[in-house]
Amino acid sequence: MNICVIGTGYVGLVTGACFAEFGIRVTCVDNDLIKIKALQQGKIPIYEPGLEEMVAKNMKENRLLFTDNLEEGVRHSLAVFIAVGTPSDHQGKADLRYVKEVASAIGRTMDGYKLVVTKSTVPVGTGKIIADLIRKNQRKKLPFDMVSNPEFLREGSAIEDFMHPNRVVIGAESDQAKAIMKDLYSPLYLIETPFVITGVETAEMIKYASNAFLAAKISFINEMANLCEKVGADVHLVAKGMGLDQRIGSKFLHPGPGFGGSCFPKDTAALVQLGKSLGYEFEIVKTVIKVNQRQKKRMVEKILKATGPVRGKTLGVLGLTFKPNTDDIREAPALTIIRSLEKAGARIKAYDPAGMKEGKKVLKKVRFQDNLYEAAQGAEALILVTEWNPFRNIDWARMKGLLKRPLVIDLKNMYEPVKMQALGFKYVCVGRPTVE
Ligand code: NAD
After folding, report:
1. Distance, CA 278 to ligand 1 centroid (Å)?
2. Which helix (H) or strand (E) holds 218?
3. What is the whole-number distance in angstroms between the Cα of residue 6 and the centre of ligand 1?
4. For residue 55, how far is its CA from the centre of ligand 1 (angstroms)?
5. Element (H or E) spanning 58, and its range?
6. Which atom of ligand 1 sits closest to the CA of residue 267?
């Protein structure tokens, strides 16, 4: 079968490469010509473990092609996946501009039956908007089916998540659409992946419900961490004690500087806006967002409390990306924290294993370093913001000689306070007592 994936970002490129790995011939389309030219030469524009090898293999076997020509992609394909971005607009609603552009272009270029599948995260009702736009732009009346197939992959483990998902959600009306989708995902059927087959609206809602719930879990444990600090309790043990209850589960109960990334902030905002547009105030999600914003501010207060006035002083920051194993810095807590510290007069030296190329575009005053030790050299304090593996194995004896003061502020609780204390550091973390 031939399919095409429109949008070759984190989701589109992984989707295209993984379907090619299933043995399907995939044309990946993007209107960013620089990206397409790089991909045609086998260069991957994003950092995602394992992706480069998978793309190279499938290009070599002639199952994965890249083009900026949407018409070429659509004409040769039975199924057309839409995987373009759906960022927040100024009100927090999902901006459907790119989805609508693509829907109109599919309508204009289709030359026979197509299965049009939305992979982008879109608010309930978008399936209908896409179908209307396709109909409106068709040169002659041609049959098509609309499917919602939201994506749940996580950056940093995207291939594993696509190849071994917890579930596949398919929102479709017609039997033909369901049959094609099942065919496309047949390798996942073989490994007994649960499939949730629903209507289009329900599938669209499942994605927002899942992301909002996960965001709520993060905001919950962050609030719990803040309270633990006040009473001297250890949030890690609280989370462990809670998480062992199977009704709760241990995942997403790690306190930190708040959630970021290209999904949770915009999807929670979009869900609230969707409710508002229908006269419904989604109170829990509104609070989740508020708590998350406050958490980032609290982290800045925590840092300033530990360092004292920072005007003219240098601070070393480790981690810019919103999570490890990605180069994505969209809405990363590190950005808010660094900007606030700069506002307070601090000079920032920073290091991130993959996020510095993107970081340089938006953090103009930061001095980016070649490794984590250079970021610490001459700094008043070392601030850990993202839990990259190399930051879990720091040579503290070396670090002590580089820092001006033995002060470590760990916003991801990567180290044991007693160990840091024994090593002679003042160690400030989240939801656990500070040790000196
Ligand atoms: P992205 O910004 O990385 O990629 C989007 C791509 O679409 C870009 O390469 C852009 O050039 C391309 N594009 C935009 N308009 C186009 C057009 N008219 N024609 C062709 N290409 C066009 O976005 P992403 O992170 O891959 O997210 C895509 C969607 O998937 C979003 O709705 C997002 O919410 C959802 N999603 C993302 C993740 C994630 O972890 N990133 C996970 C699940 C779902």
Report:
1. 26
2. helix 200-231
3. 9
4. 18
5. helix 51-60
6. 34
Q: Give the residue numbers annotated as catalytic, written as ranges.
A: 263
Domain ranges in the chain?
A: 2-198, 199-436
194 CB burial (10 A radius; 0-12, 13-18, 19+): exposed
Residue pLDDT tens, the chain, 436 long = 999 999 999 999 999 999 999 999 999 999 999 999 999 999 999 999 999 999 999 999 999 999 999 999 999 999 999 999 999 999 999 999 999 999 999 999 999 999 999 999 999 999 999 999 999 999 999 999 999 999 999 999 999 999 999 999 999 999 999 999 999 999 999 999 999 999 999 999 999 999 999 999 999 999 999 999 999 999 999 999 999 999 999 999 999 999 999 999 999 999 999 999 999 999 999 999 999 999 999 999 999 999 999 999 999 999 999 999 999 999 999 999 999 999 999 999 999 999 999 999 999 999 999 999 999 999 999 999 999 999 999 999 999 999 999 999 999 999 999 999 999 999 999 999 999 9
Cα–Cα dist 137/420, whole Å: 64
At the top level of CATH, the class of 2-198 is: alpha beta
**Closest ligand 1 atom number to CA of residue 84:** 7
- Report residue 171 as tokens: 């929102």
**In testing the pocket of ligand 1, which one of 4, 13, 30, 81 has its CB within 8 Å of the most ligand atoms?**
30
Q: Please report the atom of ligand 1 found closest to the CA of residue 46.
A: 3
Query: How far is the centre of ligand 1, averaged over its atoms, from the C-alpha of 119 (Å)?
Result: 9
Round to whole Å and give the CA distance between 66 and 16.
10
Query: Could you say which of 3.40.5.10, 3.40.50.720, 3.40.50.2300, 3.50.50.60 is the CATH number of the domain covering 199-436?
Result: 3.40.50.720
Cβ 29 vs Cβ 68: under 8 Å: yes
Common-topology check for domains 2-198 and 199-436: yes
**What is the CB < 6 Å shell around ligand 1?**
6-12, 29-32, 35, 83-86, 98, 101-102, 120-121, 151, 153, 155, 262-263
